[in-house]
Write a structure and sequence with these properties.
YaeB-like fold; five-stranded mixed beta sheet; globular; RelE/ParE_toxin_dom_sf; toxin-antitoxin system; Toxin of toxin-antitoxin system
């Protein structure tokens, strides 16, 4: 079953940065992949301040950080720019 993606308001500015850095296609593909399988093999479960959240690399510098709401079949995209910010 496919998950619904919800974007945090911070990701609006992140998308503009991704467009400028020519990384938007990669980020959108990752979002589409997450909608089908939120625990992709290269995703990483986070800890400390970000416990319960996951990340996946967009490139060496930037990560897509998200939270899974399994019961509701929702993935909330929290950040798409930076390294766990």
């Amino acid at each position: 079953m496919k998950y619904t993606l919800i974007y945090h308001k911070k990701t609006i500015a992140d998308k503009d940065k991704l467009i400028a850095a020519k990384l938007i296609d990669k980020a959108e593909q990752l979002c589409n992949d997450l909608a089908v399988n939120p625990t992709l093999p290269n995703s990483k479960k986070l800890y400390r301040d970000l416990v319960g959240k996951y990340s996946i690399r967009i490139n060496l510098q930037h990560r897509l950080v998200y939270e899974i709401f399994e019961k509701e079949k929702i993935i909330k995209i929290l950040s798409m720019w930076g390294h766990y910010e």
